[in-house]
Every structure is written in C-alpha cells, then in structure tokens.
Amino acid sequence: MQNRPIIKHSSSNFDRILQxxxxxxxxxxxxxxxxxxxxxxxxxxxxxNFKGEVDRQGSKNNMLILPLLGSFIxxxxxxxxxxxxxxxxxxxxxxxxxxxxxxxxILMMRWLLxxxxxxxxxxxxxxxxxxxxxxxxxxxxxxxxxLGLLSLPMLIFIIRSFKLK
Length: 165
Hints:
two-stranded antiparallel ribbon; mainly alpha; 61% helix; 7% strand; elongated; 4 helices
C-alpha cells in the first residue's frame, strides 16, 4: 500500500444525517427486540422462504442474533470510518484527490451502516408482527430493501469514486 495522506475529515450535513439514522435504527433494533422479548412465545419463526412463509421455528433466544450482529457491524463500521486512508480505492490516492476520495468513502460506509441497521430492524419488526399474527409478507419488503439500500447505492459510490479522480 502506498503512503497516503492522512486528512482530518469534517462531516457534512448528509454525513450527520446518516449517522443519526444509524443511531436511531440501532436503538430501534434493540428497543423493539427488548420490548417484544417478554411477550414472545418460547418458539418463534426464525427463517422464511422466498414466499415469506415460515419454514423454520426456533427458540426466542434466536431473536437476539440480529441485534448482536447489528452491534458488531455498528462498532466495526464506526471504527473503520476513522481511518479512510487505510481503505481500498478504485483509483490511486494522491494529495490532490485524497480529501474527495476519503469523503466519498466515508459517506459510502455511513450509508452502508444506516442501510444495514434499517434492514436488521425490518427483519426484527417483521418477525414480531408475524408472531403477533399480523399478516405481513416479509419477502416483499426484504428484496427491495436490500437492492434499494445496499446494491444500488454501492454502485453509485463506486462510479462516483472514478469521477472524483
């Protein structure tokens, strides 16, 4: 890896909005899980097929997997954005383009974090609603969420990186 300039990044308003969204959905993820915990039966749906039908049941302890995974992802990405000079980039980083490339990469990571928190919260909420016998087909929500919040923006940020050469 080349020696890259270390630049202090100043957050834009959009950066701060994405951080707030991440914090809010992280809190909702844990809040919904803990709030529902005591009313959940001992056995809950833990997996759904492509039609949105429950195809596996398990202990309500499985409900903790998504918030714990979310916590791990939240901590890792929150730490990673502090070191944009260590990221992999699609273009060579120079003194001239470092600030723009770092800002783009940090924004992409913050978007990714917010998207993951929204998706994990949606999965927890969907499970809670299904347990409460509220008719919801989680598969109709999941695919658009993943494509809309993860895939398309990642492609946009990568293309933007090339344009910021």
